[in-house]
Amino acid sequence: MLTTEQIIDAMSEHGLRITDQRKTLAKLFGEHPGYLTAKDVYEYMGRKYSGLSFDTVYRNLRVLYELGVLEQVVFEEGVKFRGRCSEEHHHHHMICLQCQKTYPITFCPMQLTDAPDDFQVVQHKFEVFGYCRDCGKDNNDQETSQAGGGHRDSRA
Amino acid sequence: MLTTEQIIDAMSEHGLRITDQRKTLAKLFGEHPGYLTAKDVYEYMGRKYSGLSFDTVYRNLRVLYELGVLEQVVFEEGVKFRGRCSEEHHHHHMICLQCQKTYPITFCPMQLTDAPDDFQVVQHKFEVFGYCRDCGKDNNDQETSQAGGGHRDSRA
DNA sequence: ATAGGTGCAAATTCTTTGCACTGTC
DNA sequence: GACAGTGCAAAGAATTTGCACCTAT
Protein backbone atom coordinates (compact mmCIF):
# COMPACT_ATOMS: atom_id res chain seq x y z
CA MET A 1 0.00 0.00 0.00
CA LEU A 2 1.10 3.56 -0.57
CA THR A 3 2.63 5.35 2.40
CA THR A 4 1.49 8.71 3.68
CA GLU A 5 4.52 10.31 2.04
CA GLN A 6 3.91 8.65 -1.29
CA ILE A 7 0.36 9.93 -1.27
CA ILE A 8 1.49 13.46 -0.47
CA ASP A 9 4.19 13.29 -3.12
CA ALA A 10 1.66 12.14 -5.67
CA MET A 11 -0.49 15.16 -4.89
CA SER A 12 2.46 17.51 -5.07
CA GLU A 13 3.63 16.12 -8.38
CA HIS A 14 0.22 16.72 -9.85
CA GLY A 15 0.27 20.34 -8.79
CA LEU A 16 -2.18 19.96 -5.98
CA ARG A 17 -1.68 22.07 -2.91
CA ILE A 18 -0.83 20.34 0.30
CA THR A 19 -3.29 21.67 2.79
CA ASP A 20 -3.63 20.51 6.35
CA GLN A 21 -6.75 18.59 5.50
CA ARG A 22 -5.00 16.78 2.70
CA LYS A 23 -2.08 15.89 4.92
CA THR A 24 -4.48 14.35 7.37
CA LEU A 25 -6.26 12.53 4.60
CA ALA A 26 -2.96 11.18 3.31
CA LYS A 27 -2.07 10.04 6.78
CA LEU A 28 -5.39 8.30 7.18
CA PHE A 29 -5.08 6.32 3.98
CA GLY A 30 -1.38 5.82 4.41
CA GLU A 31 -1.92 4.13 7.72
CA HIS A 32 -5.32 2.53 7.47
CA PRO A 33 -5.23 -0.67 5.46
CA GLY A 34 -8.97 -1.19 5.07
CA TYR A 35 -11.86 0.40 3.24
CA LEU A 36 -13.42 3.60 4.48
CA THR A 37 -16.63 5.35 3.60
CA ALA A 38 -16.82 9.08 3.04
CA LYS A 39 -18.50 9.24 6.41
CA ASP A 40 -15.67 7.37 8.11
CA VAL A 41 -13.25 9.83 6.61
CA TYR A 42 -15.38 12.76 7.62
CA GLU A 43 -15.57 11.54 11.17
CA TYR A 44 -11.87 10.87 11.39
CA MET A 45 -10.92 14.24 9.98
CA GLY A 46 -13.65 16.02 11.84
CA ARG A 47 -11.87 15.20 15.07
CA LYS A 48 -9.06 17.45 13.96
CA TYR A 49 -10.94 20.15 12.05
CA SER A 50 -14.03 21.26 13.82
CA GLY A 51 -15.34 23.27 10.89
CA LEU A 52 -14.80 20.49 8.37
CA SER A 53 -17.47 20.11 5.74
CA PHE A 54 -18.57 17.02 3.95
CA ASP A 55 -18.04 18.44 0.53
CA THR A 56 -14.36 18.94 1.20
CA VAL A 57 -14.09 15.30 2.07
CA TYR A 58 -15.94 14.28 -1.05
CA ARG A 59 -13.89 16.59 -3.21
CA ASN A 60 -10.62 15.30 -1.89
CA LEU A 61 -11.66 11.70 -2.10
CA ARG A 62 -12.57 12.24 -5.70
CA VAL A 63 -9.36 14.07 -6.44
CA LEU A 64 -7.30 11.29 -4.92
CA TYR A 65 -9.32 8.72 -6.76
CA GLU A 66 -8.76 10.49 -10.05
CA LEU A 67 -5.08 10.69 -9.26
CA GLY A 68 -5.10 6.94 -8.91
CA VAL A 69 -4.01 7.16 -5.30
CA LEU A 70 -7.23 5.74 -3.95
CA GLU A 71 -9.24 2.76 -5.01
CA GLN A 72 -12.96 3.11 -5.01
CA VAL A 73 -15.08 0.02 -4.54
CA VAL A 74 -18.83 -0.26 -4.55
CA PHE A 75 -20.04 -2.52 -1.77
CA GLU A 76 -23.60 -3.52 -1.08
CA GLU A 77 -23.62 -0.94 1.68
CA GLY A 78 -22.22 1.81 -0.49
CA VAL A 79 -19.02 3.27 -1.90
CA LYS A 80 -15.76 2.86 -0.02
CA PHE A 81 -12.20 3.99 -0.49
CA ARG A 82 -8.77 2.68 0.35
CA GLY A 83 -5.20 3.44 -0.56
CA ARG A 84 -4.12 1.90 -3.83
CA CYS A 85 -2.07 -1.27 -3.60
CA SER A 86 1.55 -0.63 -4.37
CA GLU A 87 1.98 -4.14 -5.68
CA GLU A 88 2.19 -3.74 -9.37
CA HIS A 89 0.90 -7.08 -10.52
CA HIS A 90 -2.75 -7.73 -11.02
CA HIS A 91 -4.45 -9.26 -8.03
CA HIS A 92 -7.72 -9.61 -6.20
CA HIS A 93 -8.85 -9.33 -2.62
CA MET A 94 -10.26 -11.18 0.29
CA ILE A 95 -12.21 -8.70 2.33
CA CYS A 96 -13.01 -9.15 5.97
CA LEU A 97 -16.66 -8.49 6.64
CA GLN A 98 -15.88 -7.44 10.17
CA CYS A 99 -12.82 -5.23 10.09
CA GLN A 100 -12.85 -4.49 6.36
CA LYS A 101 -9.18 -5.22 5.97
CA THR A 102 -8.18 -6.77 2.70
CA TYR A 103 -5.77 -9.52 1.84
CA PRO A 104 -4.38 -10.03 -1.63
CA ILE A 105 -5.19 -13.04 -3.75
CA THR A 106 -2.59 -13.47 -6.43
CA PHE A 107 -4.60 -16.06 -8.30
CA CYS A 108 -6.69 -14.54 -11.06
CA PRO A 109 -9.61 -16.59 -12.33
CA MET A 110 -9.62 -14.87 -15.69
CA GLN A 111 -6.73 -16.96 -16.89
CA LEU A 112 -8.92 -19.99 -16.53
CA THR A 113 -12.20 -18.59 -17.63
CA ASP A 114 -12.60 -19.34 -21.27
CA ALA A 115 -14.78 -16.57 -22.47
CA PRO A 116 -16.55 -17.55 -25.65
CA ASP A 117 -14.91 -15.93 -28.63
CA ASP A 118 -17.91 -13.78 -29.16
CA PHE A 119 -17.72 -12.12 -25.76
CA GLN A 120 -15.23 -9.29 -25.55
CA VAL A 121 -13.99 -9.12 -21.99
CA VAL A 122 -13.34 -5.63 -20.71
CA GLN A 123 -13.17 -6.01 -16.99
CA HIS A 124 -13.74 -8.45 -14.21
CA LYS A 125 -14.38 -8.54 -10.52
CA PHE A 126 -13.38 -11.30 -8.16
CA GLU A 127 -13.83 -10.71 -4.48
CA VAL A 128 -13.93 -13.08 -1.58
CA PHE A 129 -15.73 -12.07 1.58
CA GLY A 130 -15.38 -13.61 4.98
CA TYR A 131 -13.73 -13.25 8.33
CA CYS A 132 -10.02 -12.85 8.81
CA ARG A 133 -8.05 -14.48 11.57
CA ASP A 134 -8.50 -11.60 13.96
CA CYS A 135 -12.23 -11.43 13.42
CA GLY A 136 -12.95 -15.16 13.09
CA LYS A 137 -16.61 -15.89 13.76
CA ASP A 138 -15.66 -17.96 16.81
CA ASN A 139 -14.53 -14.88 18.63
CA ASN A 140 -17.69 -12.93 18.07
CA ASP A 141 -20.85 -14.56 16.85
CA GLN A 142 -23.06 -11.63 17.63
CA GLU A 143 -24.74 -9.83 14.79
CA THR A 144 -23.15 -6.61 15.93
CA SER A 145 -20.91 -5.87 13.00
CA GLN A 146 -22.21 -2.91 11.12
CA ALA A 147 -20.76 -4.22 7.91
CA GLY A 148 -21.04 -7.96 7.99
CA GLY A 149 -24.58 -8.07 9.20
CA GLY A 150 -27.22 -7.91 6.55
CA HIS A 151 -25.27 -9.49 3.77
CA ARG A 152 -27.11 -11.66 1.37
CA ASP A 153 -25.15 -14.36 -0.32
CA SER A 154 -24.91 -13.18 -3.84
CA ARG A 155 -24.23 -16.54 -5.37
CA ALA A 156 -26.61 -17.30 -8.19
CA MET B 1 -34.58 -17.50 -15.82
CA LEU B 2 -37.92 -17.52 -14.09
CA THR B 3 -40.95 -17.03 -16.30
CA THR B 4 -43.65 -14.47 -15.70
CA GLU B 5 -45.91 -17.22 -14.37
CA GLN B 6 -43.29 -18.58 -12.03
CA ILE B 7 -42.79 -15.14 -10.58
CA ILE B 8 -46.49 -14.65 -10.06
CA ASP B 9 -46.82 -18.09 -8.53
CA ALA B 10 -43.99 -17.34 -6.16
CA MET B 11 -45.77 -14.22 -5.00
CA SER B 12 -49.06 -16.08 -4.62
CA GLU B 13 -47.46 -18.86 -2.64
CA HIS B 14 -46.04 -16.37 -0.23
CA GLY B 15 -49.41 -14.83 0.38
CA LEU B 16 -48.78 -11.68 -1.61
CA ARG B 17 -51.67 -10.18 -3.50
CA ILE B 18 -51.49 -10.17 -7.22
CA THR B 19 -52.20 -6.62 -8.20
CA ASP B 20 -52.07 -5.23 -11.69
CA GLN B 21 -48.78 -3.54 -10.96
CA ARG B 22 -47.27 -6.76 -9.75
CA LYS B 23 -48.48 -8.62 -12.81
CA THR B 24 -46.77 -6.06 -14.98
CA LEU B 25 -43.64 -6.24 -12.87
CA ALA B 26 -43.61 -10.03 -13.17
CA LYS B 27 -44.04 -9.73 -16.91
CA LEU B 28 -41.17 -7.28 -17.14
CA PHE B 29 -38.73 -9.48 -15.29
CA GLY B 30 -40.10 -12.64 -16.82
CA GLU B 31 -39.37 -11.36 -20.28
CA HIS B 32 -36.41 -9.05 -19.87
CA PRO B 33 -33.18 -10.99 -19.51
CA GLY B 34 -30.94 -8.10 -18.44
CA TYR B 35 -30.46 -5.87 -15.45
CA LEU B 36 -32.83 -3.01 -14.75
CA THR B 37 -32.60 -0.07 -12.42
CA ALA B 38 -35.51 1.06 -10.29
CA LYS B 39 -35.86 3.93 -12.73
CA ASP B 40 -36.02 1.60 -15.72
CA VAL B 41 -38.76 -0.31 -13.99
CA TYR B 42 -40.58 2.86 -13.08
CA GLU B 43 -40.48 4.09 -16.64
CA TYR B 44 -41.62 0.79 -18.06
CA MET B 45 -44.50 0.48 -15.66
CA GLY B 46 -45.30 4.15 -15.81
CA ARG B 47 -46.33 3.69 -19.42
CA LYS B 48 -49.20 1.56 -18.21
CA TYR B 49 -50.07 3.23 -14.93
CA SER B 50 -50.10 6.97 -15.20
CA GLY B 51 -50.39 7.53 -11.48
CA LEU B 52 -47.56 5.15 -10.62
CA SER B 53 -45.34 6.23 -7.80
CA PHE B 54 -41.70 5.47 -7.26
CA ASP B 55 -42.18 4.06 -3.83
CA THR B 56 -44.46 1.34 -5.14
CA VAL B 57 -41.72 0.31 -7.50
CA TYR B 58 -39.14 0.29 -4.75
CA ARG B 59 -41.43 -1.60 -2.43
CA ASN B 60 -42.17 -4.28 -4.94
CA LEU B 61 -38.59 -4.62 -6.02
CA ARG B 62 -37.65 -5.14 -2.43
CA VAL B 63 -40.43 -7.61 -1.84
CA LEU B 64 -39.42 -9.63 -4.87
CA TYR B 65 -35.82 -9.49 -3.85
CA GLU B 66 -36.65 -10.73 -0.38
CA LEU B 67 -38.71 -13.49 -1.92
CA GLY B 68 -35.62 -14.53 -3.81
CA VAL B 69 -37.31 -13.92 -7.13
CA LEU B 70 -35.04 -11.07 -8.10
CA GLU B 71 -31.29 -10.76 -7.94
CA GLN B 72 -29.88 -7.45 -6.89
CA VAL B 73 -26.45 -6.43 -8.12
CA VAL B 74 -24.52 -3.32 -7.26
CA PHE B 75 -22.92 -1.80 -10.34
CA GLU B 76 -20.68 1.23 -10.41
CA GLU B 77 -23.67 3.18 -11.66
CA GLY B 78 -25.96 1.94 -8.96
CA VAL B 79 -28.20 -0.92 -7.95
CA LYS B 80 -29.86 -3.09 -10.57
CA PHE B 81 -32.29 -5.98 -10.59
CA ARG B 82 -33.00 -9.00 -12.73
CA GLY B 83 -34.96 -12.18 -12.51
CA ARG B 84 -33.24 -14.94 -10.62
CA CYS B 85 -31.61 -17.67 -12.66
CA SER B 86 -33.58 -20.86 -12.65
CA GLU B 87 -30.46 -22.98 -13.11
CA GLU B 88 -29.94 -24.64 -9.83
CA HIS B 89 -26.22 -25.13 -9.83
CA HIS B 90 -23.88 -22.43 -8.66
CA HIS B 91 -22.57 -20.25 -11.41
CA HIS B 92 -21.31 -16.79 -12.25
CA HIS B 93 -22.04 -14.29 -14.96
CA MET B 94 -20.58 -12.45 -17.87
CA ILE B 95 -22.44 -9.20 -18.13
CA CYS B 96 -22.69 -7.18 -21.31
CA LEU B 97 -21.92 -3.55 -20.65
CA GLN B 98 -24.08 -2.51 -23.55
CA CYS B 99 -27.25 -4.54 -23.43
CA GLN B 100 -26.87 -5.76 -19.85
CA LYS B 101 -27.67 -9.33 -20.81
CA THR B 102 -25.89 -11.98 -18.82
CA TYR B 103 -24.30 -15.24 -19.80
CA PRO B 104 -23.56 -17.98 -17.32
CA ILE B 105 -20.06 -19.02 -16.42
CA THR B 106 -20.10 -22.48 -14.94
CA PHE B 107 -16.52 -22.27 -13.80
CA CYS B 108 -16.23 -21.12 -10.20
CA PRO B 109 -12.87 -19.75 -9.14
CA MET B 110 -13.44 -20.55 -5.49
CA GLN B 111 -12.53 -24.18 -6.08
CA LEU B 112 -9.08 -23.05 -7.01
CA THR B 113 -8.62 -20.22 -4.59
CA ASP B 114 -6.82 -21.55 -1.60
CA ALA B 115 -7.92 -19.29 1.15
CA PRO B 116 -5.45 -19.30 3.98
CA ASP B 117 -6.73 -21.43 6.84
CA ASP B 118 -7.18 -18.38 8.95
CA PHE B 119 -9.63 -16.71 6.58
CA GLN B 120 -13.18 -17.95 6.90
CA VAL B 121 -14.83 -17.58 3.51
CA VAL B 122 -18.46 -16.59 3.63
CA GLN B 123 -19.23 -15.39 0.17
CA HIS B 124 -17.63 -14.53 -3.11
CA LYS B 125 -18.30 -12.54 -6.20
CA PHE B 126 -16.96 -13.25 -9.66
CA GLU B 127 -18.26 -11.17 -12.49
CA VAL B 128 -16.94 -10.61 -15.97
CA PHE B 129 -17.89 -7.47 -17.83
CA GLY B 130 -17.57 -6.87 -21.54
CA TYR B 131 -19.46 -6.84 -24.80
CA CYS B 132 -21.49 -9.74 -26.07
CA ARG B 133 -21.60 -10.81 -29.68
CA ASP B 134 -24.56 -8.65 -30.54
CA CYS B 135 -23.00 -5.57 -28.98
CA GLY B 136 -19.37 -6.17 -29.98
CA LYS B 137 -17.46 -2.91 -29.83
CA ASP B 138 -16.87 -3.06 -33.61
CA ASN B 139 -20.54 -2.53 -34.31
CA ASN B 140 -20.93 0.57 -32.23
CA ASP B 141 -17.97 2.50 -30.90
CA GLN B 142 -20.00 5.50 -29.95
CA GLU B 143 -20.23 6.43 -26.31
CA THR B 144 -23.97 6.36 -26.51
CA SER B 145 -24.72 3.50 -24.18
CA GLN B 146 -26.23 4.82 -21.02
CA ALA B 147 -24.84 1.94 -19.08
CA GLY B 148 -21.48 1.08 -20.52
CA GLY B 149 -20.18 4.59 -20.68
CA GLY B 150 -18.15 5.89 -17.83
CA HIS B 151 -16.73 2.63 -16.61
CA ARG B 152 -13.44 2.65 -14.89
CA ASP B 153 -11.50 -0.53 -14.86
CA SER B 154 -11.66 -1.75 -11.33
CA ARG B 155 -8.73 -4.13 -11.56
CA ALA B 156 -6.25 -3.60 -8.77
C1' DA C 1 -0.64 37.92 -6.01
C1' DT C 2 -3.32 34.45 -7.54
C1' DA C 3 -5.17 30.20 -8.54
C1' DG C 4 -6.66 26.44 -6.02
C1' DG C 5 -8.92 24.90 -1.70
C1' DT C 6 -12.29 25.44 1.94
C1' DG C 7 -16.74 26.04 4.36
C1' DC C 8 -21.41 27.08 3.96
C1' DA C 9 -25.81 26.59 2.00
C1' DA C 10 -28.56 24.81 -1.14
C1' DA C 11 -29.66 21.68 -4.91
C1' DT C 12 -29.85 16.76 -6.74
C1' DT C 13 -30.49 12.08 -6.75
C1' DC C 14 -31.84 7.88 -4.76
C1' DT C 15 -34.54 5.56 -1.39
C1' DT C 16 -37.57 5.09 2.60
C1' DT C 17 -41.57 6.16 5.61
C1' DG C 18 -46.28 7.68 7.40
C1' DC C 19 -50.83 7.96 6.23
C1' DA C 20 -55.34 7.75 4.14
C1' DC C 21 -57.54 5.46 0.34
C1' DT C 22 -58.39 1.42 -2.74
C1' DG C 23 -58.60 -3.27 -4.52
C1' DT C 24 -57.58 -8.24 -3.75
C1' DC C 25 -58.69 -12.24 -1.44
C1' DG D 1 -64.99 -6.88 5.01
C1' DA D 2 -60.33 -7.04 6.37
C1' DC D 3 -55.91 -6.07 5.38
C1' DA D 4 -52.26 -5.78 2.10
C1' DG D 5 -50.98 -2.66 -1.51
C1' DT D 6 -51.05 1.92 -3.62
C1' DG D 7 -50.29 6.93 -4.32
C1' DC D 8 -48.98 11.07 -2.33
C1' DA D 9 -46.17 13.91 0.26
C1' DA D 10 -42.55 14.39 2.93
C1' DA D 11 -38.41 12.91 5.21
C1' DG D 12 -33.75 11.09 4.90
C1' DA D 13 -29.29 9.65 3.19
C1' DA D 14 -25.55 10.37 -0.01
C1' DT D 15 -23.37 13.31 -3.14
C1' DT D 16 -22.70 17.54 -5.94
C1' DT D 17 -22.56 22.53 -7.04
C1' DG D 18 -22.24 27.76 -6.68
C1' DC D 19 -20.15 31.19 -4.34
C1' DA D 20 -17.41 34.17 -1.25
C1' DC D 21 -13.49 33.85 1.61
C1' DC D 22 -8.93 32.01 2.72
C1' DT D 23 -4.13 30.21 2.02
C1' DA D 24 -0.30 27.49 -0.14
C1' DT D 25 2.73 28.36 -3.66
UniProtKB/TrEMBL annotation, chains A, B:
Keywords: Cytoplasm, DNA-binding, Iron, Metal-binding, Repressor, Transcription, Transcription regulation, Zinc. Its cofactor is Mn(2+); Fe(2+); Zn(2+). Its main location: cytoplasm. Fe cation binds at residues 90, 124. It is found in: Cytoplasm. One of its GO terms (biological process) is regulation of secondary metabolite biosynthetic process. InterPro entries: FUR, Fur_C, WH-like_DNA-bd_sf, WH_DNA-bd_sf. The keyword Transcription applies. One of its GO terms (molecular function) is zinc ion binding. It holds the Pfam family FUR. The keyword Ribosomal protein does not apply. Binds 1 Mn(2+) or Fe(2+) ion per subunit. GO terms for cellular component: cytoplasm. Coiled coil: none annotated. Zn(2+) binds at residues 96, 99, 132, 135. Belongs to the Fur family. This is Transcriptional repressor.
